[in-house]
Amino acid sequence: MKITGGFYYVEAAESVYECKARGVFRKRGMTPLVGDIVDITIPEDGYCSIDRIQDRRNALVRPALANLDNLMIISSVKEPDVNLYLIDKMTAAAVNKGITPIVVFTKSDLAPVDDLVDIYRSVNIPAFEFSTVDNRGLEDIKAVLKDKVTAFCGNSGVGKSSLLNALFPELGLQTGMISEKLGRGRHTTRTVELFKKHGGYIADTPGFSTVDIERFELIRKDELKFAFPEFDEYFGTCQFNSCNHVCEKGCRVLKAVSDGVLPQSRHDSYVRMYNEVKDIKEWQINSTK
Ligand SMILES: Nc1nc2c(ncn2[C@@H]2O[C@H](COP(=O)(O)OP(=O)(O)OP(=O)(O)O)[C@@H](O)[C@H]2O)c(=O)[nH]1
Ligand SMILES: [Mg+2]
Ligand SMILES: [Zn+2]
């Protein structure tokens, strides 16, 4: 559920146990992640121990979480401004790991939101707006959480904790006000933590920093096109079988973009991601895992 100060908090049989991880994990270079399903021993006295990490369905590096159903990608329409490239990197990372991406545009009281929501709905990625002013979108967002494990992620200050508090007021999570007193750029939420809610689990996470974004999960060049599901229906229809949909002659994806059938911003993000990984060798990608 949570990792702090060298302790792992593990939920079992309706209780939470404070555990230490066995040294054997360190030797193997494995660390338990929030969201892991683990085997623990509860001794008569002394600390509980994590003995085994069960096989993961998936895992993300940032936020560091395992076994997710949904990645709730939060972006404010203003303060801070929308960063479509960051959103698209996160949707691609989710799809690449078999996690369902969901996009939420927060602070929709501050700027127009409809065109942004439409970009994602047009490529079959669920997208919602939310504002703490009138809680618009709240019920739709709550519905996608039902019985699922969902992580809320996005830049610092976009309103992740505010949205979680609106969904589940009993959480009483700390939000931005305090960090503003400490100075700009400080994260209010500092650790990843899972909460048992609505038949499933939700995770609040610290906001990304610029460094995190640079080190965001790289997707291999040949896998990248499959991380943009809107390209799937063009599979095998381009002039060249090996088409990467970047600038090739006879590319049906490029045509769909220029015809306005596929959103330009998504393709721009794809090309930028492609150019980032095109010269990276296989072993370099493995070493980032
Ligand atoms: N106008 C407006 N302000 C909002 C809204 N949601 C959140 N805020 C404000 O945005 C600031 C940041 O909100 P948080 O919920 O702490 O953001 P966070 O994403 O959890 O930030 P970190 O924990 O640092 O990653 C606070 O001052 C909130 O009051 C909204 O819908 N509209
Ligand atoms: Mg927060
Ligand atoms: Zn193509």
Structure commentary:
With 289 residues, the chain is an alpha/beta fold. It folds into three domains: 52 residues, OB fold (Dihydrolipoamide Acetyltransferase, E2P); 155 residues, 3-Layer(aba) Sandwich (Rossmann fold); 70 residues, Ribonucleotide Reductase Protein R1, domain 1 (Orthogonal Bundle), CATH 1.10.40. The chain has eleven helices and 13 strands. The chain has a six-stranded mixed beta sheet with strand order 10-9-8-11-13-12, with helices on both faces. A five-stranded mixed beta sheet has the order 1-2-3-5-4. A two-stranded antiparallel sheet has the order 6-7. The chain is globular and about 70 Å long. The mean pLDDT is 90. Bound molecules: guanosine-5'-triphosphate (GTP), magnesium ion and zinc ion (ZN). The site of magnesium ion (MG) has 5 residues, from helix 5.
SSE string? EEEHEEEEEHEHEHEHHEEHHHHH
What spatial form do the alpha-carbon principal axes imply? Answer: globular
Proportion in helices: 25-40%
Radius of gyration, CA atoms, in whole angstroms: 20 Å
Strand order of the largest sheet: 10-9-8-11-13-12
CATH superfamily grouping of the largest domain: P-loop containing nucleotide triphosphate hydrolases
CATH topology heading of the largest domain: Rossmann fold
Question: Low-confidence spans: pLDDT under 50, at least 5 residues?
Answer: none
- Bound small molecules, which ones? guanosine-5'-triphosphate, magnesium ion, zinc ion
Please outline the major beta sheet.
Answer: 6 strands, mixed
Average pLDDT level: 90
> What's the CATH architecture name of the largest domain?
3-Layer(aba) Sandwich
Classified by CATH, the class of the largest domain is Alpha Beta
Report the end-to-end length measured between terminal Cα atoms.
Answer: 22 Å
